[in-house]
Amino acid sequence: MNPVNYLYLAALLFTIGASGVVIRRNAIVLFMCVELMLNASNLALVTFSRLHGNLDGQILAFFTMVVAAAEVVVGLAIIVSIFRTRHSASVDDSNLMKL
Amino acid sequence: MSTLLAAAGSLEPAARSYLSPTGQEIVFLLVGVLVLGAAVVSVTTRQLVHAALWLVVALGGLAVEFLLLTAEFVAWVQVLVYLGSVVVLVLFGLMLTRAPIGRSPDADSGNRPAALAVGAASAATLVTLVVDAFRSSWIDLSGPAGTTRLTGEFLFSHWVLPFEALSVLLLAALVGAIVLSRAKGDGTKPRPGNLRTVLTKTKER
After folding, report:
1. Complex prediction ipTM
2. CA diameter of chain B
3. Residue B181 and residue A75 in contact, taking contact as beta carbons nearer than 8 Å
4. Residue B142 and which of A51, B33, B68, B205 are 20 to 30 A apart at CA?
5. What is the pTM of this model?
6. Does the beta carbon of B101 lie under 8 angstroms from any beta carbon of chain A?
């Protein structure tokens, strides 16, 4: 099978996630778009692993998933504590450092 | 591992079938279209909870793609970690921050042109790069790979130190999340007399 198809899928998913990060306003939905981008890179890693015939890429994809889970846990805690003080989860409302 | 190395890219060009699709390619195409569609809906829908549920579809489809690439272990970790915990956490976060259940008109910020530009630039760069780099390469999916046994042996013979560092990172994330989300104030330690004052206040009412 030609690996280009999988890499196309990964590239398009990454693109969708990137434009979602630019479009969206809710911080948690931004997180979901970042997850999409991470998953696209995982798909590319697994494809490369299969292309080269060793398992390094799959191990890296596994590590990416673990780091993404940790990131989601800490990020959601930060978002919830911001929501407690500013009563909004929108990224446009966290503008304390703006002039 | 030597069988894997021998199987990779060793097919004769005559044996490569560019035209007649195999079952794997058909499944790849169907699931790929499903994943892309679900991702687009998840990024553009105005109902935030629906966005999280469409994300489940996209991530599940990606798990199927991992299975098609014979990466069993990664596929099941994807199901366990992403579908099982990350999406549940995201849904909990949406509920805790009181996301609107119905349509929310202000879900998108006003920079759709910027998003289009970013998307077009990223897609053009990545797709041309991929076409340029991997046009003539080939994957042979027949060899054994990615089973839990093989992955575990490989993980614990070559990647032990990063694995241990990751477990420490997970512990740090856990502790950090608990510290961040704990309620501020003196509600942590019950003081003597609190209960009594509350009771007398309720009696006075």
Report:
1. 0.90
2. 92
3. no
4. B33
5. 0.82
6. no
